[in-house]
Amino acid sequence: MIHEFKSFIAKGNVMDMAVGIIIGAAFTAIVSSLVGDLINPIIGLVVGGIDFSNMYAVLSGTVAPGTGLAAARESGAAVFAYGAFIMAIINFLIIAFVVFMLVKMVNHVKEGASAEEAPAALAAPAGPTETELLAEILAALKKK
Length: 144
Hints:
144 residues, mainly alpha, 5 helices, 2 strands
């Protein structure tokens, strides 16, 4: 059983997956910073400085007007934080687009690499065709 486990762990797919998860975790920090520090402020400028993350509706309890979402939650009021949900959707769409562009770029690089390998494969000497092989077999059979 230990031998089978070692064989399973040593397979390329498991190691590739582990590397992917580690790189994905590191990439998450980069994408989160891109969204939070660069793209969200631009979206805020485009929509007139509206900060969606502090938009909420009070379901029960009292909250002073102009109170931020964090303060409203701390006061014990039940709040419907629709702005945080809107920001989560915007962040998801931006992250999905960035990942799409990254995958597209990687696929483009892979296609370029395979296109460079293809001429090398074509340059290899061609072996005998199927017809030539069959003719040789027929000639060998006739000799017997």
